[in-house]
Amino acid sequence: APAVAESVAGAAPTPAARGRPRILAFDSVRFLLVAYIVCGHFVAFAAPPPFVFRAATQVNVVVGAFFALSGYVAAYTSTEPAAHKASEKFIQTPSTLWILQRVFSYFPLHLFVLLAFSPVFVYSDVVYSGWPTAIWHGVLSMTMTQAWFPLHAEVWNAPAWFLSALTFATIVLAFALSPLARQTKAELRRTLAALFFAGLLPKVGYCYDHKVWNLLEGSIPSKAHPNLASFNTQRFSPFLATVEVLLGAAACRLAMLDGAEGESEAPKPSKFATIAPALGIPIVVILRAAGLLPLNDLLARGVLVVPLFLRFLMAAHRA
After folding, report:
1. What's the DSSP call for residue 44?
2. Which of 114, 219, 245, 112 is nearest to 167 (CA)?
3. Is residue 126 packed enough to be buried (19+ CB in 10 Å), middle (13-18) or exposed (0-12)?
4. Is residue 223 within 8 Å of residue 304, measured between CB atoms?
5. For the chain, which ranges sit under pLDDT 70?
6. What was the pLDDT predicted at 223?
7. Do residues 298 and 234 make contact, with C-beta atoms less than 8 angstroms apart?
């Protein structure tokens, strides 16, 4: 699901943005993220060594990069470089139409998958829970509202929770891009800081309440979690996904304002600026798997992986 959303909602530029150079590095990034997440979902069937299993199952950490990338690309295609404004195409497009264009770039395929596999989904629900549950799960899946239900976010087509959260974030982004586009670099940095702490506070609350500061949630069975509902409220939350999308959009605007009137020039290109954050992400994953970095999935995602990923995107953008 993240791959579908990114390939169509994030990567496809609007008509007004087609003249802008495509950032090819982002395509490779998508492939690597998708490959990791797919492996993380199926690696258990290979019965790997414990270290490999812990390293490959940190999908809850890495998925935050997809939300950040969605916001980054949306800002890149809908705002003007070296100017404090949104693109004319974005301004002239009604917000509802802008939202629908993006949602319907993946919604038809989502419906096709649901219809194609509906006999399987419906059969299992009816046999184990009855028709009322099957109908309700169908409504949640078809309306892409399942992410709002922490213990049922993965009903039917499980990865589609991503689309559910992304749809809400897209609605918010339609009204946030213009204000972000008008901000200066100093204002954008304050916005990034505010968004960072807004996303961090509920994660810290979850960790404090359940004493799970260093738990690798992705590598333990659901029944072994001290409070699965609380954890799911964090990892499936459309609100927290929106924070990551807005972080991506604000980071993109920082890079796009390089050289604008009254703004600083772009930092001097450096291989280290691109390679360091790119290597930082797998290093975080490896250190956590080895037990050398005692941070749980949510803290590693919000404090380390997403910020490192945004630094990488900005460096690749400026290269």
Report:
1. G
2. 245
3. middle
4. no
5. 1-19
6. 86
7. yes
